[in-house]
Amino acid sequence: MVEEQSSMASLKAAKQQLRLLMKQRLGAISHESAMSQSTIVSNTLKTFKPYVEAKRVSVFLSMPSGEIQTDAIVRDALKSGKEVFVPYLHKNPLPSPDLPARVMDMVRLKDIRDYESLKPDRWGIPSIDPSTVHERQRILGGPDAQHSDKTFLDLVLMPGVAFDRDPSTGVIRRLGHGKGFYDYFINLHNAKLSALGMQEHPVLLLAP
Hints:
This protein is α/β, with parallel strands linked by helices. It has a single domain, classed as Rossmann fold (3-Layer(aba) Sandwich), CATH 3.40.50.10420. It is built from 6 helices and 9 strands, in the order H-H-H-E-H-E-E-H-E-E-E-E-E-H-E. The longest helix has 26 residues. It catalyses: (6S)-5-formyl-5,6,7,8-tetrahydrofolate + ATP = (6R)-5,10-methenyltetrahydrofolate + ADP + phosphate. Belongs to the 5-formyltetrahydrofolate cyclo-ligase family. It is an enzyme of class 6 (ligase). GO terms for molecular function: 5-formyltetrahydrofolate cyclo-ligase activity; ATP binding.
């Protein structure tokens, strides 16, 4: 038990060091370079079959700097007639010592005008007004949500600080910002798909 706890502590420290290193490297990338890379990602996505065929997509909304800018992706998805869902953080309705105090759901944007009306939060990220959440379709749902038990995502676009590939399985591993919001959401979404007798749907990782 002591050895396992020590190993977990070492892994946690290593992840934090990597986050700090990546933050320094990302800070050195010019705005022009970041925008150029974001354009490449957006244009590539438009011909990516899982995206083209998806009817319901989740897209993270970007910080002003330090990661891929997703504005063009959101606009293209809405213009293409896709149902677009974006992150919404809220208190866990089932508080428990074993669960995070705050969790994430995905809520639907109504249209371009709705998207453009979002106000930036303290990190500069366009954010859903909590007073409108009860009017919106939500993936995980809730007692105040306008949702269907069959609501699910065809594709999830999610950010990451760093990625690597597991040498034994080939699975791509993601390092996030350490809050576990996406891990929690993806696990619940996959459980929902399993309950509906459906296979897990693609998750597309977008590097900073």
